[in-house]
Each structure stands twice: as C-alpha cells, then as structure tokens.
# Entry
Amino acid sequence: MKNKWLKIVVQTFIWLIFIGVFVVSLGFTEKQRTTELCKKILVNILDSNQNHFIDSVDIIQLLKNKNYKITHYPLSELPLDNIEKDITHLSVVKNAQVYTTIDGYLHIDVVQRTPMIRIINYNYESYYVDEEGVLFPLSDKYTARVLVVNGNVNEPYALFCSRNASDAEKQDALKRPTMLDDIFAISKRIYQDSLLQPLIEQIYINEEQQMEMVPKIGDFVIVFGDTSQMEDKFIKLKAFYEKVVSKDSWDAFSKVNLMYNKQIVCTKKNDIYEQQ
# Structure
C-alpha cells in the first residue's frame, strides 16, 4: 500500500515538473514573439503557375505605398489584419493570409482570381468575370486565354463591378436577371464541362439578345438563344459533337441551331440536316 502511494506521488511530481516546464516554455515563446523583430517579408503567390496578374514585387510595393513599418519592427506590433485587408482589396486577389512566425518572418500568402470569361461590351470596354461571378479589370501584366463574350453586351464595368454575377442564382424567380447573369450561367456551364470547355472559343450576343457560339474548330455558328431550357440545349450540343461531327467534316456545316424543341437543326453548306 505504501509503495502504491509512493508511486502516485512520484508520478504526480513528474507531471507537475512537465507542466511547469511547458508553462515556462510558453512564456518564453510569447516573450520572444513580443520582442522579436521582423527580419523579412516572405510573399507566396500560391497559384503563380496558373495566373500571373500579380507578383511579390506588387505586394511589397503596396505595403510601401501604404507606409507600413514592417522590417526591423517588433512582430507583435505589426497590423496583420490591416495588411490582409489592403491586399484582399486588390481587384485581382481572391484571398490572402498574413501571419508571423517565431523565426522573425512576416508571411503573406496570396491566391489570385481565376478568370472564366472575358467580356467586351458594346462600348469595347473589356473586363474579366471569375468563376465566382466577380468582375475585375484587365491587367497590363498578363492576358488570360479564356472564353470571350462580345457583341450587344450593355453592362458597363463601372456599374456592375461591385455586383456578383452569380447572384442571379439566388434571385427571386419574379426578378429579371440581366444579360450579364445569363452570360455567367451559360459560361459557367461551358467552363465546367470537360468536353465543351476546350471546344467553345467565343459567345456573340446578337441584336435580338440571343447567344451565338463560335467553336475553336470548324467554320460554323452554334445558335443557342437565351437561357431557357439551357440544360436541354447543352445535351443537344454535346450530342452534336459526339454523334454528328464524328461522321462529317468539321467544315461541313454553316450553322447548328439548338433552339428547336427536341431536335438539332444543322445547316450544311449545301442543304439542311436534322438530328432528332
């Protein structure tokens, strides 16, 4: 019995020593973090292999323009939240994380916006829309190769830049979405389709506000219309590529019309071809 109690006392004593060392270690770490000066800013553009709208030089220049005092200043005094907010306010930045490490470095991790389409409106004003429906301007540093939408697009960038094009998916059914909302819905469907995404190069909005698609391969136009029965039209379009084009030359058609119910009306360069 005596040995049992002695064992308990020894184990308790060991645990108390361990806890004491741990608390002292935490205190030392916190003290070191409080007094440690920032040695360097490390900027990591996480998607730099995919997009090139911004680089570490741009981020450092932003911090200088905002008059942030960072290097050789205590880590504990750095306004991390403000730095992160200023970086995420950049139009090409999707999100950013700013944090310090005990070795004296300020880390800035940045993810850029990924453009899904490039819109050229009726005034020849051009801007991107990303996969979340956020509008952002073109860049002098980098031009993304994405689906182009042009023609009778009336939405100016200045009026819609603060609006998310994907909001149409959340709107009440009685509210009429804008052409920008329709463009986003169609483009997103193409963007997410592994067959159609590499095949469709351009969407043209004609005078009747109907959509016409221009493929990358083949000298023909795909008449899509508006977003009504959108999924049925895409099913027919994929059927055209999988069943019709495989039998005929890419250049055999001048027009592929998806607006007819339950059929594809293909205009050959010499006659009419219907696919049920």
The mean pLDDT is 84. The first helix runs from residue 2 to 35. The chain has two domains: 40-112, 115-275. Helices lie at 2-35, 56-65, 80-88, 157-160, 179-191, 230-244.
